[in-house]
Amino acid sequence: MPHPAAPFPMTRPRRLRQSDWMRRLVRETSLGVDDLIWPLFVVDGQNERQDIPSMPGVQRVSVDLVAEMANEAAGLGIPAIALFPYTDPSVKTPGAEEAWNPENLVNRATREVKRQVPDIGVMLDVALDPYNSDGHDGIVRDGVILNDETLMALEKQALAQAEAGCDILGPSDMMDGRVAIIRQALEQHDFPDVAILSYAAKYASAFYGPFRDAVGATGALKGDKKTYQMDPANTDEALREIAIDLSEGADMVMVKPGMPYLDICTRVKREFGVPTYAYQVSGEYAMIKAAAHNGWIDGQKAMIESLGAFKRAGCDGILTYFAKDVAQLIAEEGPLG
Ligand code: PBG
């Protein structure tokens, strides 16, 4: 008996969801290993591992172990790692001079990784906060973050990092004019191939807390970062920031944090069509881990879903503390949808 025309639906979106093969056939985006950048925390010592309580599953590790982890990452096909230092408080100063010490932790780690694992990209933050006794990304005088003095410091930091063999510089400080000064310095000092992935739309966010524990900046930070990081209420301003960084010579841009700012990712990708990355930051990672630990969500499924969301939003890649876990899963199962 044929069904009467109504009230049965003529259009049934469920047809395309009826089986795994059909869902795969119509899938619009997927997450692959090429989408991942893996952030790692470096600490002094030899064969040293330190847990970070607010980031379960993430450790600070010494340079020798960073090289091992880079090797593992390369084996899994992860294109790049990003290195962040835990700087001993005794080394931090108001001028953040350690930032351009050729022997600082990230520069040593970069040289070691490039020596042992030449085929993985190394990205370093250009920002003073891990080295600054004030915990700020810029130089502070009388409670004011000084823009242009900070630029001079960032230039020195960037050159020391390029000298160490860093492939991608990530200015994450949000000072005005930083990309221009770094790009110019790179060109002048014969580092034309060092790329800049600028933290172009970086918001003054509550989601960075665990990272500040990881780099030992939590106790140091005086006040907040609202005079340089962006107001979470703003969207148009993010586009202006991106436009400025691109005009100053950024090759790739980043939106940060990630999941709470997917609207920004989408707009940036649509308007500029440049390589666009999101940073799934420490607080996003910690939330998923904490809820999973309590049995409130399925941690693995939430990990995959949260990362897939970035692809759907238009991102070309994601900095994520899940990079190795997800790469292992992709190695077993193929690209994840
Ligand atoms: C430093 C920097 C921060 C992060 C990356 N680079 C913290 C901050 O700006 O306070 C945060 C990353 C994360 O939370 O995972 N400028």
From TrEMBL:
UniProt GO BP: protoporphyrinogen IX biosynthetic process
GO molecular function: porphobilinogen synthase activity; zinc ion binding
EC number: 4.2.1.24
Keywords: Heme biosynthesis, Lyase, Magnesium, Metal-binding, Porphyrin biosynthesis
Entry binding sites for Mg(2+): E241
Active-site feature positions: K202 (schiff-base intermediate with substrate), K256 (schiff-base intermediate with substrate)
PROSITE patterns the record matches: D_ALA_DEHYDRATASE (PS00169)
InterPro entries: ALAD (IPR001731), ALAD_AS (IPR030656), Aldolase_TIM (IPR013785)
UniProt keyword annotation of GTP-binding present: no
Metabolic or biological pathway: Porphyrin-containing compound metabolism; protoporphyrin-IX biosynthesis; coproporphyrinogen-III from 5-aminolevulinate: step 1/4
One cellular-component annotation, GO: cytosol
Pfam families associated with the record: ALAD
Catalytic function, reaction form: 2 5-aminolevulinate = porphobilinogen + 2 H2O + H(+)
Family: Belongs to the ALAD family.
Subunit structure: Homooctamer.
Annotated NCBIfam families: PRK09283.1
Protein name: Delta-aminolevulinic acid dehydratase
Gene name of this polypeptide: hemB
